Amino acid sequence: MLILSGCKIDFVGELYTSDLINVAKTGESINLPMEISFQVSSCDEDLTSLNEKIGSYFINYQQINCGTRDDFMSYITAKINVPVVNNKQKFEDQNKSLIGYWTGIFEDREKPDVFLIMNLQKLDSLSDYIYNETFQKLSLEEGKFKINLNNDIENLKIRVYPSIVDGSPLVFENLFELSQREKISIESSNITSMHLQEKGWAPLFYFE
C-alpha cells in the first residue's frame, strides 16, 4: 500500500510586521514557523521514511500529528521553519527550504513588498517523488497557502493583493489599517498559486 496518497500540500504560516520590515532593511535572514499538511493512506502505517523524505525539503521538519479530517482522509500535520530573506537569490543559494518569504524595498517605495517564494528545483524534485508514489502530479493550486499576519508594532497600513482575507474574497487590491497587536489572515488565490508554481514567486501585500 502506498503511504503517500495525495498530490497537494497545505501551508499555514505566521508572519510579524516588525520581522518583515527589519529583514527588508538590514538584509539579515530569519526563520519563522509554518505548519504543513498532506494526505497519507493511513496513520497506522510506519511513517518514518516518509517523514524523512518530506522533511528533506524543509528546515526543522517535525511531525505534530496524523489524523482523519472531515473528508474522512488521513493527513500528516508537521511544523517547519521558513526563511525570510530580502533577496530571492539568497533564498535559492541557501537551497534549504522549498518555500520562503521575500521582503524587499524597491526603488519606487519606502516600505517593503512581501512575496511568497518557491525553490523551483526542490519543487520539481518533490513533484517527481509525489508522482512516483501516487501517479498524480503535484499541484500548488490544489493546496492552501494561508498567512496569519501579526502586527507587533505601531498602527500601519498594508495593501493586500487579490486573495481571501479573514474569509472574504478580494478581487482587487485592498487597503487595510492594522492597529498594534491586530492580526489578519491572508489566503492565496488559485491564480497566485499557479504563478508561484510557474515563476517561483507570488505577491502577498505591501506596506504603505
What does this structure look like?
This protein has one domain (4-207). It has five helices and 13 strands. The protein has helices spanning 17-26, 48-55, 88-94, 120-134, 190-199, and strands at residues 4-16, 30-40, 59-68, 74-85, 99-104, 113-118, 145-150, 156-160, 164-165, 168-169, 174-178, 183-187, 201-207. Strands 1, 2, 3, 4, 5, 6, 7, 8, 9, 10, 11, 12 and 13 form a 13-stranded mixed β-sheet that branches. A hairpin with an 8-residue loop joins strand 5 and strand 6. The chain is globular and about 50 Å long. The N and C termini lie far apart (52 Å). The model has no long low-confidence stretch (mean pLDDT 93).
SSE inventory with pairings:
Layout: E1 4-16, H1 17-26, E2 30-40, H2 48-55, E3 59-68, E4 74-85, H3 88-94, E5 99-104, E6 113-118, H4 120-134, E7 145-150, E8 156-160, E9 164-165, E10 168-169, E11 174-178, E12 183-187, H5 190-199, E13 201-207
Parallel strand pairs: 1-7, 4-5
Antiparallel strand pairs: 1-2, 2-4, 3-4, 5-6, 6-13, 7-12, 8-11, 8-13, 9-10, 9-12
